[in-house]
Amino acid sequence: MSETAPQISDQTPQAKPEQPSRPVAAKSKGSGPAWLALLLALAALGAGGWSSWQLYQQREQAQQQLAQMAQAAAAAREELQQSKSDINQRLQGLPTANAIAEQHDLLVSLQGEQQRLAQSLAGLLGKSREDWRLAEAEHLLRLAMLRISALQDVDSAIALVQGADDILRAQNDPQAFAARGELIKVLEALRSLPQVDRSGLFLQLAALRGQLDQLQMLTPEYILPADAPSIASASDGSRWDELWQQLSRYVRLDLHADQDIRPLLAGQSLAQVRLTLALALEQAQWGALNGEPEVYRQALAAASDVLETYFDRDNQAVQRMQTRIGELSGQAVVAGMPPLDEALRSLQAYLKQRENGERLPPAVEEGDQ
Fold this sequence. Notes:
Helices cover 76% and strands 0% of the residues. The chain is mostly helical and 369 residues long.
């Protein structure tokens, strides 16, 4: 711009009047590139500043990542060091090769010993089972003796003796032949016994006791009607009639001389006689339930005497009860039980012989050595 100005000043005398407009056009034409260059410089400066800021941010992020990586590496080193120390401690606690070999040898010997013990235990259990079964047979025979002696229970005794015989039969031992023979003898003797139904006798006697109220005394008691005093007082001879009614209670005229003269039973006396009969039947129940034949028969005989003495023989209820008492008197309360002592001794002898036979082989071996 400074250079164009002198040129214009030199040419002013010769220029035409229209020439002053040219410097304005030249001035506007030269300011445009300058502003453009200024804008470009500012844009380049902004881009450079932005690039510097981005580089700074990236540098900061890189430094942070490096710090985090350093921390992670330090933590990994510490964890690795801890794991290494743990592994060293575990390795120190592990046995050595010699110790492992010794433990392996001990394990092999222990397994062999366990197998030998298992075989020995199996043999002992087999023998012990047989011994238990034989002891059970002896126990069953003792129970049979108890059932026979205490309760006269033939069916239970047969079942118990049969169980003992089944145990001996399962042994399949020829030495048990004698013991089985005694058991079979007892079984046959028990099966030939008559059946004694003690509970049935007890219930039948209880039913007879329930029929006592139906029995009638020998001569009916005279009962004065309730309206007799009023009728007697209304008549002319009321005093004599009342006296006769009072005396008729204590005096009886019996025109049958061939019959035994027995006293009349009043209400209280009749109750006492029935109580006596009930007690006799109850005593017979006790004798039947406890296997006492003498008590049983004596009680029934006493009950029969009470019926014969104090009750009317022609009464059907009295006759039926008398018949039933006679039938029950013939019933067996106990049966002749066979003794089981010989069978028990034979079984115990077999058990002792078996025990001695099991102890014999070790003694023979010791003698051979």
